[in-house]
Write a structure and sequence with these properties.
- The chain has 7 helices and 5 strands; from the N terminus they run H-H-H-H-H-H-E-E-E-E-E-H.
- By secondary structure, it is of the alpha+beta class.
- A 5-stranded antiparallel β-sheet has the order 4-3-2-1-5, with no helix packed on it.
- It is globular.
- The termini are far apart.
Length: 211
C-alpha cells in the first residue's frame, strides 16, 4: 500500500525522484502496483527496462557522444522529462514568463546548431555564453557573492545568481572582483543518460523555437 501511494503521488505531482522504483514496478506481480506504475510511466515518460538500447553517455568520449546524439532522433516529450530529471530547470528557463536565471533556452537553437548545443552541454567550460561569465565579488564586510552582472551603471552593481535572485551592492563596498574561467554549469550532467535520452533533450529544445 505504501509503494502504491508513493507511485500515485509521483504520478500526480510529476515528480521524477521515484522513476527507478516505478520502472522496476512495471513488472511487479501485484497487478494494482504494475498498473499504477504503467500509468505513472506514461506521464513521467519512463522507459521500460530494455526499451532503450542506445549506449550511455558515460561510456562515450565527448566527440563520439556529440556525433551520436546529433544524428539520433529522439522524442520531444521524453526530452522535456529529461530537462527536469537532469535539473536543467534549476538554472535555465524556456519561457519568457519565468524569472530569468542562467542563459535563456527558449530560442537557444536559433543560435546554436544541434551539434554545437550538444557539445556545449557535454563540455560547458569550453564556451561560456556572452554576458553569462560568472563574477565573484568579495565585499569589505567579508561576504562573497557570485553571479551574472545585470547592471553596473552608476555607483552600484546588480548581479543575478542561478536561482534568479538579484543582489545589489555599492561599488564602494567591493574589496575584490574576479571573473571565473569556469561555467556555473557542472560537467557530467548527461553522464547517467543514454544517447536516446540526450537526443530527446535536444529535440525538446529544438521544438521550443517553433512554438
Amino acid at each position: 500500500k505504501q509503494r502504491l501511494a508513493f507511485i500515485r503521488a509521483a504520478h500526480e505531482t510529476r515528480n521524477p525522484l521515484l522513476n527507478d522504483k516505478i520502472r522496476v514496478a512495471l513488472s511487479d506481480p501485484d497487478a494494482n502496483l504494475a498498473k499504477a506504475a504503467g500509468e505513472a510511466a506514461k506521464v513521467l515518460k519512463i522507459q521500460a527496462p530494455g526499451e532503450d538500447k542506445t549506449p550511455k553517455i558515460s561510456g562515450l568520449e565527448i566527440p563520439d557522444a556529440v556525433k551520436q546524439v546529433t544524428a539520433h532522433k529522439g522524442d520531444v516529450a521524453l526530452g522535456e522529462a529529461v530537462f527536469t530529471r537532469a535539473t536543467c530547470n534549476a538554472c535555465h528557463t524556456v519561457s519568457q514568463n519565468e524569472a530569468q536565471k542562467g542563459p535563456y533556452l527558449g530560442n537557444i537553437t536559433e543560435t546554436y546548431r544541434r551539434n554545437e548545443l550538444a557539445e556545449a552541454i557535454l563540455n560547458p567550460n569550453k564556451t561560456i555564453a556572452q554576458g553569462f561569465a560568472t563574477n565573484l565579488f568579495t565585499l569589505k564586510d567579508g561576504s562573497s557573492l557570485a553571479g551574472f552582472v545585470t547592471n553596473e551603471a552608476g555607483d552600484s552593481v546588480t548581479i543575478r545568481d542561478i536561482t534568479s535572485q538579484e543582489h545589489q551592492f555599492k561599488k564602494s563596498e567591493i574589496k575584490e572582483r574576479a571573473t571565473l574561467e569556469t561555467s556555473l554549469m557542472p560537467p557530467g550532467l548527461m553522464l547517467p543518460f543514454t544517447v536516446h535520452e540526450m537526443a530527446s533533450l535536444l529535440d525538446y529544445l529544438e521544438s521550443l523555437k517553433k512554438e
